Amino acid sequence: MTVSRDPAPRTGPEPPHGGTVPAPDSGPRRPAGEAVPVPDSDLERQLARLGGSWTWLLGSAVATLVPGILALVWPEGTLHVLAVIIGLYLLVTGAFRFVAAFAREPGDRLTGLLVAVLYVLAGVLCLRNPLQTIAALSLITGAVWLVTGMVTAYTALTARGLPHRGLVLGVAALAVVAGIVVLALPTESARALTRLLGLWLVLLGVAELGLALALRSALRRARSGLPPGTPAAA
Question: Where is the secretion signal located (predicted)?
Fold first, then answer.
């Protein structure tokens, strides 16, 4: 098609046949059928910010320490009381892990959410029937710890840029050992099971407490621009 030239130069694009001016190019076009990424909502960003903070991990450590201490200082409690304590621990920890899952990469988020759901379901099972047998309570708690430790170890090995990877692997190994011990060692009384679970809860809580403090140190170094390994100011 031949286009006539005007004396004055045109500043805009030449309209095609039909008089319709094409819209300005807004960037590279996506191939047909490719999904357009949807940005995270404000709620997801807030959950990610909260779950990635060291204070949230500190709260999770306290939620593990408190029932462990209660079980150790009150070993005469009945199986009903122990089931309630363990059930509440599992529910609260599941809530902490649910929020913490949003601080992970989108590809690893589903794994964290599944672990949180596992905690909540196990807590509901303990609270729904507190008068269950010692074997059932041991099975629920040991299975949760075993699965959680394995998932945490996998995440620590595959996550990129994870601070204090060795400490996270140590917490994962401790959870795996706790699950194996609770599942393998038969307990004949509620008192023995209370001491066993209380001991592992305290050990796991102390490990999570150390991880929370290490994360606080790493976040402070990142904000101040200090190289890794440099102690952060208190």
Answer: none
At 226, the amino acid letter reads L
Rounded Cα distance between 122 and 137, Å, is 10
**C-alpha dihedral sign at 119, 124, 127, 130:** negative
Q: Average pLDDT, stretch 103-108? A: 71
* Residue linked to tokens 């807030």: 46
pTM of the full predicted structure?
Answer: 0.70
Phi, psi for 152 (deg, rounded to 5): -65, -40
Cβ neighbours, 10 Å, residue 213 = 16
Cα-to-chain-centroid distance, residue 169: 14
Q: Could you tell me where the DSSP H helices lie in the chain?
A: 42-51, 54-73, 79-101, 106-128, 134-158, 165-184, 190-224
Give helix 42-51 / helix 79-101 axis angle, nearest 10°.
120
Residue 203 CA, distance from chain mean position = 19
Q: Which amino acid makes up residue 47?
A: L
Domain boundaries, the chain: 45-217
